[in-house]
Amino acid sequence: MSRLLEPSEVERQLSELPGWSSDGKSLHRSIEFASFPEAIAAVASLAIDAEEMNHHPDIDIRWRTVNLTLSTHSAGGITQLDIELARRIEAHAS
Question: Helix, strand, coil shares of the chain as percentages rounded to 5?
Fold first, then answer.
């Protein structure tokens, strides 16, 4: 099982991930795309990374906006897996 990150570790790493925030239990990000098909394509692309990592985000799609929540449920909070998945998601969003 992955180790829970300390709040200071989360904040330090989030400083390198603009747009991401933490509520102490999970990471959050909303990304608006130019169109609904672009939003769906981005989700399909990040799904491949998530599957490779065996670490899956909670995803809510509202028209052109994709809302993401990352948490390592088995650990009960935020682990390095969540940070790594957030980095990969940013690569798809840009």
Answer: 45, 25, 35
Whether the predicted model's global pTM rises above the 0.85 cut: yes
Residue 79 CA to residue 4 CA, distance in Å, equals 5
8 A C-beta contact, residue 81 and residue 2: yes
Interhelix angle for 36-53 vs 80-93, to 10°? 150
Longest dimension (CA), the chain: 38
Task: List pLDDT tens digits, range 32-73.
Answer: 999 999 999 999 999 999 999 999 999 999 999 999 999 999
Residue 1 scores a pLDDT above 90: no
> Residues 24-41, buried b or exposed e (16+ Cβ, 10 A)?
eebbbbebebeeeeebee
* Domains of the chain by start residue, with CATH: 7-93 (3.30.1360.20)
